[in-house]
Amino acid sequence: MELNAYTTMACIVVWIVALELATPLSQFAARKLCHAGCGLGIMLLDSTHAHSRFFVWAVAAGSIAMTWNLSPLPPFRFSRPRDVGITVYLLLVSLWFFLQMPSSILAPLFFADPAGAVVGKACSKYLGHWNPAWYDKKTFAGTMAVFVLTYASITFRCSTVGRLRIASVAAVAEGVGGDYDNLAIAVVVLVGWWLSGD
Fold first, then answer.
1. CA–CA dist 166, 158 (Å, integer)
2. Where are the beta strands (DSSP E) in 30-178?
3. Sign (positive or negative) of CA dihedral 63, 44, 31, 15
4. What are the tens digits of pLDDT across the range 25-69?
5. Could you tell me if 127 and 185 are in contact, meaning their C-beta atoms sit under 8 angstroms apart?
6. Can you tell me the distance from the alpha carbon of 181 to that of 83, in angstroms, rounded to the nearest whole number?
7. How many CB atoms lie within 10 A of CB 76?
8. Is the CB of residue 131 less than 8 Å from the CB of residue 120?
9. Are 175 and 134 in contact (CB under 8 A)?
10. What is the arithmetic mean of pLDDT over 7-13?
11. What pLDDT does 124 receive?
């Protein structure tokens, strides 16, 4: 096991704790930074290494237990009671590492989903009716951010047309996915990866 893997693991833990303690940050900002920051760290871990798998499973199990009030530790300040979004995210990453699949394939999940929320919220605040919702609370600007970040963060070999298709379907899937938007993006990207034959 390389030393830099342990460094990555330590950085993930420190990142989570720092966001939990960074009270000047809004709960929304802390949640999205945790989503993307932990995703970046996870991408740096090798799912074929047992130590990386056990680390991911331990963090996921502990975080899910906290989220569902099954731990002596309180839930994260940026989580909702029995948070389905966090639970699905952690179960998905855990399954990915169990199957020893390349974690970089999940890049759109780690970056496109939080980008959509941040861009959508910011554009609604500053542009008002120029950023209308097209489905439930999902806005055009937020969905475009999911599209752009999905397109940009696909890490496997894929034609431009294939990349456009994956990004388009992922953007719509994230929009209608509700609490399961992370799963929706991951399924689209996984199918795209399989179809690419990479």
1. 10
2. 133-135, 138-139
3. positive
4. 899 999 999 999 999 999 999 999 999 999 999 999 999 999 999
5. no
6. 13
7. 19
8. yes
9. yes
10. 96
11. 94
**Antiparallel, parallel or unpaired: β 133-135 and 138-139:** antiparallel
- d(Cα 175, Cα 165) in Å, to the nearest integer? 15
95: amino acid identity, one letter: L
Residue 125 tokens read as: 């605040």
Q: Which residues are paired to 139 by β-bridges?
A: 133
157-166, long-range: CB < 8 A, 24+ apart: 157/196, 157/198, 158/192, 158/196, 158/198, 162/192, 162/195, 162/196, 165/192, 166/192
Three-state SS sequence of 52-83: HHHHHHHHHHHHHHHHCCCCCCCCCCCCCCCC
Please give the single-letter amino acid code of residue 116: G
Write out the two tokens for 67.
Answer: 């989220």
pLDDT of residue 196: 83
**pLDDT digit string (tens) for 124-155?**
999 989 999 999 889 999 999 999 999 999 99
Sign of CA dihedral 166, 131, 25, 176: negative
| pTM (global) more than 0.85 | yes
184 φ/ψ angles, rounded to the nearest 5 degrees: -60, -45
**What is the pLDDT averaged over residues 87-103?**
95
